[in-house]
Amino acid sequence: MTLKPLSDRVLVEPSEADDVTSGGILLPDAAKEKPTKGKILAVGPGKLDDNGQVVAMSVKVGDTVLYEKYGGSNIKIDGKDRVIVRESEILAIVD
C-alpha cells in the first residue's frame, strides 16, 4: 500500500526501540520507551498560509528526524508500524 500525506504531514518509519539497557538488562516489549526518532518515508505538499499559498516543507523523504514523544498518529501499513506527524511536531533533523 502506498500512502501520500496531506497538507503539512509526513509519514515516518520509527526506529526500533532498544532491547537492552546500557547496563545490560533485557527489556520486555511493555517496558520499551516509545521511539521518537525515525526516517521520513513520504511528505505532504505543505501547509497553506493566510494568502492561500503553499509553504514548502523543510523536511524531505529520507531525512532522519526527532519528533515529539506523544505526537502524531500511529498506524500499521502492511504489518509495519508507522507514524503520521505534522511538520510542527518534528523537533530536529538528525545529520
Polypeptide structure, described:
- With 95 residues, this protein is mostly beta strands.
- The protein has a single domain (9-15, 33-94), classed as GroES chaperonin (10 Kd Chaperonin, Protein Cpn10, Chain O), CATH 2.30.33.
- Helices cover 0% and strands 40% of the residues.
- It contains no helices and eight strands.
- The chain has strands spanning 9-14, 37-43, 47-48, 54-55, 64-67, 73-77, 80-86, 90-94.
- A hairpin with a 2-residue loop joins strand 6 (73-77) and strand 7.
Q: Which key terms come to mind for this protein?
A:
95 residues; six-stranded antiparallel sheet; two-stranded antiparallel sheet; 0% helix; elongated
The CATH architecture assignment turns out to be Roll
CATH superfamily descriptor: GroES chaperonin
Instruction: Predict the CATH topology.
Output: 10 Kd Chaperonin, Protein Cpn10, Chain O
Class from secondary-structure proportions:
mainly beta
Shape: elongated
Compute the separation of the termini in Å: 29 Å
- Mean pLDDT, as a whole number? 88
In total, the number of strands is 8
- Please tally the helical runs, counting DSSP H or I stretches of 4 or more residues: 0
CATH class: Mainly Beta
> Total domains, how many?
1
Rg for CA atoms: 15 Å
Neighbour order of strands in the largest sheet: 6-7-1-2-5-8
Largest sheet: 6 strands, antiparallel
Strand content: 35-45%
What ranges have pLDDT less than 50 throughout 5 or more consecutive residues?
A: none
SSE order, as H and E?
EEEEEEEE
Q: What's the helical proportion of residues?
A: under 10%
